[in-house]
UniProtKB/TrEMBL annotation:
Membrane-crossing residue ranges in chain numbering: 18-37, 57-80, 104-133, 153-176, 203-223, 235-261, 289-311, 560-582, 614-635, 647-668
Name of a matching Pfam family: FtsX
Every ABC3 transporter permease C-terminal domain range: 64-184
Organism: Hominisplanchenecus faecis
Name of the protein this chain belongs to: ABC transporter permease
Amino acid sequence: MFSNLILRNSRRSRKENGLFFSSLVISIVAFYMILSISTQDVMLFLQKMESDAVDKLLLLIPAFYGMTLGILFFLIYFACKYQFECRRHEFGVYLMLGMRRSKLFGMLLAEDFLTSILAMLIGLPVAVVLSEIVSLVTAKLVGMGIIGHQFSLSWFAIEWTLAGFLAIKLTALLILSGRISRQEIGTLLSQPTNRPKKQMPSVIYGLAAICGSVMLAVAYYMAIQGIAWTKVSMMGLTLLLGIVGTMLLFYGMRALIALIVKKGKGNKQLHVFTFRQIQENVIHQSNSMAISSLLILAALCCFGAGVGIAGTNNLSSGHVIDYTFEDHTAEDSSQVLPNIKAALKENSLENQFSELFEMRVGRIRTTEDYDNAYSMDAVMDSLRSLPQSEDRDVLLNNLGYATYPYLICLSDYNRLLELSGNPALQLGEKEAAVYIDTEFTTVSRTAMLNQVLAGHPKVELDGSPIHLTGEVQSVNLVTDRSITLSFALILPDEAFLYYSQGMYDTYVNAVLSEQALNGNSLMTAYLDLNEKLDETDIEYESYLQNMGRQLFYTIASSYITLYLAIVFLVVANTIVGVQFLMSQQKTGRRYQTLIRLGATYETLCQSAGKQITWFMGLPVLVAAVSSLFGVRALFTGILSSRTRGTVAEMMFVSAAMILLLCVIEYIYMRVVKRSSDRYLLTLMQPQREE
């Protein structure tokens, strides 16, 4: 009999509180996914190249785990509190009929245990599947392919997920059960009511809203302009302005709600009642709404920034060559390529590469006047004639230091362009092309400089006039990002040899052959060939170094931000939903009065639906608008100089993800409305007055 009561109550609780149960499942998924990062293929791969950086990232996982435990504890506490508030009358009846308080506590503990077990039975398999999907997608992104993927089940993640989840559930249950057990039967049988709060003059609310808006504007300006990222104190000030500004904004919204109430006296059913309920909920719950809005804002910013970075950070961009070899023992730069070929042949590795070609890079050796070896006054004058902008000023500043540029051999660079699928450069005897690595420019600045180069400006190289032509070139010269040129000139072979006087550095670039791949993934081919090259005396750099740095950046910035976004989103929506349902329950007598006056069930549901739309919609609306500025501020602080040129593209992806999350918010809103409708249906039946 007692066990059947527990099963029935547990089933009813899950059915009536689907929002809370879903939040528990999502929490379990989030726990497992963050704890299992260390076992994913990508992390195992990265540890071979960026072990120090990966180890530091993994050291942060316990901190994220602890922070998540704290956040989810409050989620579970408020949700359980709502469940207990809904069942106050039921608990009072149990005690009145003779149930001991210890047995009531045991019943609640057993019900919660069943719910927790079911949540874990659903959440853990979902978490494992999602973790594998994420691992597969990332493996595909880095070129591992499905063949290179291995299924991983982290028992460490499962154990700590179960331990953390059960610990916070038990703690919340003990606190709430203790409060219930100490209450008198009469208190449990009586219906809770809202305590009236003091109303301030409308002018106070209006001033609070204005001050909050100004503080938010200042906070976002400091973050977007990079002021907040200069030092810890400025970041603290920015966060303080943002938090206090949001609290004041929601506190001041009471004036807006009051204005709508005054102007909304029409023929609509329960219009005044609805908006007075909204006004009262905002008055009583403005702090909760502000906190929920901040959490939703954090979720939208993290999700938008994480997806924006992951979606636009193409790990294979600029991937043309697989290996770069060097030979520092060669007495003559022209002997580097023959020496590398001989060394590869000696170790039976020549069939591993389909292409081997030189990349010659030098300096101006025809003069020792380094400050005046190169001048481009015509280019600078053309830039000064353009409309004033930040990009123009940065270009003028950067090019002002280009008085002793690097030189690149045209034939070598054309071979690189051919392999990358780009058309070759055609340069005359007195012509040159400009090379700037993507690390030192942005898309907008490159376009501005291309506009100037379209006029074939005349410059001087060691006193000799030449003309710049074509567009700015930026294909990576070698595999590793350690060699980046802020400004260089691509010269015809004869001019290159003349100005470099035969003193230049020679890099030998290589492309893997089909035999090297041999049905393996790209990453596997790299790892196998690296092991063979390590047994030789050949100096090399592989694309793994470049890939590892980019991939670590993507993992660190997107995995963590997406994880935090899920946690913040679940907590925010559960808290704001539970807060409304608790407030609705405390004002249940008002609905009962309307029912006695003839209000229909459909009319009450429409009124409650409007209240939910306002109560949940206001935090979401404020967070959605703020997130556009917040994501842009995150890009300012976390993006490297190389990736800042894709901010516009990232913002587009981020805006799409923010819109998607707003749809998810709407689904949450619908779930809360269904819970509200079920509660109102119980009020339609006549009840005894104890």
